[in-house]
Amino acid sequence: MGEGTESAGHWAAPDLGDVVVGRGALLARVGEIGAAITRDYAGRPPLLVGVLKGALNFMADLMRSIELPVEVDFMAVSSYGAATKTSGVVRIVKDLDVDLAGRDVIIIEDVVDSGLTLNYLRQYLGARHPASLEVCALLLKEGEQRVAQPLKYVGFTIGPAFVVGYGLDVNERYRNLDAIYTFVGEP
Ligand code: IMP
Q1: Which pTM does this prediction carry?
Q2: Which residue from 168, 172, 180 has its CB within 8 A of the most atoms of ligand 1, so it is best to mutate?
Q3: Please, which residues bridge with residue 52 across strands?
Q4: What are phi and psi for residue 14, nearest 5 degrees?
Q5: Whose CA is nearest to atom 19 of ligand 1?
Q6: Is the dihedral of CA 75, 79, 83, 85 positive or negative?
Q7: Among the atoms of ligand 1, which is closest to the Cα of residue 80?
Q8: Each residue of 77-131: pLDDT tens digit?
Q9: What are the residue numbers of the active site?
Q10: What string of DSSP letters covers 96-112?
């Protein structure tokens, strides 16, 4: 594999369209967000709440780029089932292990599409009396939000196409791609 190429390889190729965000751009942007969080939360290390499973890769890279003693926890929600369109129904599959009261919390999301998942999570977590509650989303789908979301940190604004890789899946596949691609196969 030469420099600048993506490692999608032949195994996924028939289902993948264009590279939407390459590996280098991902790492550079995640580093910038990590530096911003380091600055913004100096003296009050945040609790990072990752939303499984899509935020797995983002969380792993982001937490290592924050130079503060952050804590990390995860929630698992199910919003899509096996389809590629939102159902609007959010189900908590795994709840947090830690108490949020008085904590500075940052929700770490993979992609904000309709905003319904995030809207639900924000209300759900906000009710537990955190000192502050902000959102860090790797991807924001431009113009797709049905619920307006104040997002403190956004990695990339992308078009409406369904994407996979770097944690994002279709039917649980392709989370292990190290860049983000449009999905052109049959869901
Ligand atoms: P929303 O509730 O419509 O904002 O959808 C948010 C969730 O849907 C994300 O956390 C993802 O799990 C999933 N999702 C939305 N768009 C995509 C996509 O393009 N690829 C993979 N998952 C997606």
Answers
A1: 0.92
A2: 168
A3: 76
A4: -65, -25
A5: 162
A6: negative
A7: 8
A8: 886 555 555 666 688 999 998 999 999 999 999 999 988 889 889 999 999 999 9
A9: 113
A10: -SS--TT-EEEEEEEEE
